């Protein structure tokens, strides 16, 4: 997933739980990445028009991505993988090797070209396309790791800024989460107190934005950072990406309609936040 994962457990517990928690990141990446030709996702991509049986992990990631795509009317769309490749986002993070789809995407593909059959656990790509689950898979891995760690109660998972904070910190208080300032290195633009929730941020400060606006085919540029607090990391991660694409006003409307809290900062450093953010923090 191109990121460093850390897990902090407040009280000494079963080391096997932590090992299993870390294991989910390897498992989900092996199934959901488009940067590995042999991944389950890329094997699905190579078989358009076929109802392909898939693992529960891949099925759930795609199902959830389609749900968010429907909720955002396509501002979030997992069918953008081939377009991302053409923009240069096509290198495997560990080796630096270029990874490209075996089949070019058909013109105008979207999430509506993806068909799920829950009874048979199959996915059909009605037309050639490449899935990109980058805004879903890491959050799913965080959530599965959090499920493994639930018996220990108090823990923190950090997967490259995608966080899940369980229980309380070593001081016995809610976890403190600093939201990075999108334009000033080493500064925070906000601090939150969080317990039993996920916090995920999409931002343009690591590099020029890599978040595609599926509606235009270009890169989204009206937001500098979008942070979401939600009950699950998969939801927070996907909605942070969707809000980044929608822009500050429509992004906040989306977050409030989905019952989550969030903060959106524009390149001009204007702040937009959900009505309940202060209460949530």
In the CATH hierarchy, the third-tier topology of the largest domain is known as: T-fold
Q: Which word captures the global form?
A: globular
Q: What is the CATH homology-level superfamily of the largest domain?
A: ApbE-like domains
Please write the string of helix (H) and strand (E) elements: EHHEHHEEHEEEEEEHHEEH
Strand content: 15-25%
Largest sheet: 7 strands, antiparallel
Strand order of the largest sheet: 1-5-6-9-10-11-12
Fraction of helical residues: 25-40%
The DSSP helix count reads: 8
Mean pLDDT: 91
**N-to-C terminal Cα separation, in Å?**
29 Å
Which stretches are low in confidence, meaning pLDDT under 50 for 5 or more residues running? none
Report the structural category: alpha+beta
Key traits:
alpha+beta; T-fold; 3-stranded antiparallel beta sheet; 7-stranded antiparallel beta sheet; 281 residues
In words, what does this structure look like?
32% of the residues lie in helices and 21% in strands. The strands form 3 sheets. Strands 1-5-6-9-10-11-12 form a 7-stranded antiparallel β-sheet, with helices on one face. A hairpin with a 7-residue loop joins strand 7 (175-180) and strand 8. The radius of gyration is 18 Å and the shape is globular. The chain has 2 domains: 27-134, Orthogonal Bundle (T-fold); 152-280, Roll (T-fold), CATH 3.10.520. With 281 residues, the protein is α+β, with helices and mostly antiparallel strands.
